[in-house]
Amino acid sequence: MEEKLYKNTEGLPVIIDMGEDVSTATNIVLHVTKPDSTTTTWTGAIVYNTNYFKYTLKSGDVDQVGPYKIHPHSTLGSWTGFWETTSIRVYDEYE
Predict the structure, then answer these.
(1) Contact 51, 19 (CB under 8 A)
(2) Nearest Cα to Cα of residue 35 among 73, 7, 3, 2
(3) Partner residues linked to 79 by β-bridges
(4) Signed CA dihedral, 9, 12, 16, 17: sign only
(5) What average pLDDT score do residues 3-26 get?
(6) Contacts of 49 (CB under 8 A, 6+ apart)
(7) Please, what are the domains in the chain?
(8) Deepest in the core among 1, 44, 63, 74, taking most CB within 10 A?
């Protein structure tokens, strides 16, 4: 059974598979587009198990129901830029 992410969840990690070794990545910022098309940034992501970025949800991060697009940005060696966009879905209570 797939775990669901519910509106107003806090403290749960969002783990993004980067598809390659990002163990030396720095300045990780997740650029997020919410379901109503507003944008925000989630700072404080870290490298997790070599190939993943991990961010722990804070109050207000997932305050809307629907799809969230996440566009990671970081520095890796001499390269700085955006990675492939991924998405998560946030559900309403009892959904």
Answers:
(1) yes
(2) 7
(3) 76
(4) negative
(5) 95
(6) none
(7) 5-91 (2.60.40.10)
(8) 74
DSSP 19: S
Task: State how far the Cα of 62 lies from the Cα of 19, in Å rounded to an integer.
Answer: 25
Phi, psi at residue 52, to the nearest 5°?
-130, 150
Question: Which stretches of the chain are assigned E, i.e. beta strand?
Answer: 5-6, 13-17, 26-33, 39-43, 46-48, 52-56, 66-76, 79-82, 86-91
Structure tokens at 85: 């966009």
The residue with tokens 């109050």 is: 59
What's the average model confidence in pLDDT over 19-47? 97
pTM (whole model) above 0.85: yes
Q: How far apart are CA 48 and CA 64, in angstroms?
A: 26
63-to-1, 3, 11 alpha-carbon distances in Å? 24, 18, 14
Looking at residue 8, the DSSP 8-state letter turns out to be: T
